[in-house]
Amino acid sequence: MVFSIPFWEKHPLHLIISDLSDDFTNDDDMSMVNALSVIRTILDNNSLIDTTKGLFTMLNSGNWRVHVLVVVILIMDIKFRTEEVFSLIRARIRVGTWASPQLLVVLNAYDNQFPQNMMDVLDDSFEIRGYVNLDNTSKLGSNAFIKEQSQKVKSAMKWLINNEFEADNEGMKMAKSWSIRLLQIQEYLDKKN
């Protein structure tokens, strides 16, 4: 299945997508232009049902790399911007992922319920649950890791909803960088179409 985690591990598009310095000017194999083309081909060659199931599989996985791909898929195709997908993204953030700031950026851009459905992460008591899978099996990391990731989520939210920014804050930096990247991808796709 094209949306299986091993498929994405063999096609490391997350590396290209995560390279925020790519300026969309070249189209070699390791370029953003090529990565978007590969993803577009996959989306076009699979049914909406299969692709949606694939997104669910990707979000259930503890693999942050595929979470970054979910962000790009949502930027690329409006038909996946559904409450069902947004709900899974919110659950993924609350469980924990290295890609929480990126996922928050996509919610900020496309989810009409944002930030209301994520305000709880700003509470002092908020802490990611620290599991790999959404079914709360397989622990993600140590208590220190959980605290660090929880803080990253809070910081990204603060930047997204209040425009608070601290240069040495990883969550804020990632949210800001990915907000810019989202606009760059949208602009590139708009010009291409």
Strand and helix layout:
Layout (H helix, E strand, L loop, with lengths): L4 H6 L2 H5 L14 H13 L3 H13 L3 H13 L6 H13 L4 H11 L32 H20 L7 H23 L1
Written overview of the protein:
By secondary structure, the chain is mainly alpha-helical. The chain is globular, with a radius of gyration of 16 Å. It is built from nine helices and no strands. The two termini are 28 Å apart. The mean pLDDT is 85. It has one domain (5-192). It has helices spanning 5-10, 13-17, 32-44, 48-60, 64-76, 83-95, 100-110, 143-162, 170-192.
Task: Give a quick set of tags describing it.
193 residues, mainly alpha, 9 helices, globular
Q: Report the average pLDDT across residues.
A: 85
Overall number of domains: 1
Looking at how many chains there are and whether they match, the oligomeric state comes to single chain
Main β-sheet, in a few words?
Answer: none
Cα(first) to Cα(last) distance is 28 Å
Indicate the structural class.
mainly alpha
Helix-residue proportion: 55-70%
Shape: globular
Q: pLDDT below 50 for ≥5 consecutive residues: which ranges?
A: none
Radius of gyration equals 16 Å
Spell out the helices and strands N to C.
HHHHHHHHH
- Proportion of residues in extended strands: under 5%
- Find the count of extended strands (DSSP E, 2+ residues): 0
Tally of alpha and pi helices: 9
